[in-house]
Amino acid sequence: MPDPSAPIIDDFSIELRDRKIELVDGDGNRLAWFPAWECADRDLKHFIAADVPLGSIDAPYEDFDDGWQIAIYEHEGFVYVTENEKTFRVTRDAYLEAWARVLHEFNPVLSLEELLARAGREPEA
User: Fold this and answer.
1) What is the separation of C-alpha 122 from the centre of its chain, rounded to a whole number of angstroms?
2) What is the pTM of this model?
3) CA angle 11-17-22, nearest 5°?
4) Which of 19, 51, 61, 65 could form a disulfide linkage to 36, CB 3.0–4.6 angstroms apart?
5) pLDDT tens digits for range 10-65
6) How far apart, in whole angstroms, are the C-alpha atoms of residue 19 and residue 21?
């Protein structure tokens, strides 16, 4: 179940650090990451919007490794991210826009505007 007390991250982004994906706040602090996803920079060159880690409350995106697990799902306009029992949430639009920027950086098949439009969002000025 979604945790309505989970903090909302207003200034959310996704960064590549040491060739791994990190979900970060506006100060650059890591909120969650994918430690087993080595060489993400190489993999992202082949990523498309359908590859973005996102599930539903009934079928969340889940991944795990030794001592680490993550679940990501959308519910009522928010994307909830739970990593090792610590949860935060971000608006659906902010989550998809952050991924669109990463996809555009590593696989610029579509313009950023096209990626955002496919996610149902207009780019911010």
Assistant:
1) 18
2) 0.84
3) 45
4) 65
5) 999 999 999 999 999 999 999 999 998 888 988 888 888 889 999 999 999 999 99
6) 7
* Structure-block tokens of residue 65: 């490794």
- Residue 3's identity, in one-letter code, is D
Q: Where are the beta strands (DSSP E) in 1-125?
A: 13-17, 20-24, 30-33, 55-56, 61-65, 68-75, 78-83, 86-91
CA pseudo-torsion sign 63, 65, 43, 124: positive
CA–CA dist 122, 72 (Å, integer): 23
Please give the DSSP secondary-structure letter assigned to residue 8. Answer: B
* Partner residues linked to 72 by β-bridges: 61, 81
Cα–Cα distances (Å) from 92 to 42, 81, 84, in that order, read 26, 11, 21
3-state secondary structure of 57: coil
Q: Which two tokens stand for residue 70?
A: 């993550």
Domain locations in the chain as residue ranges: 13-118
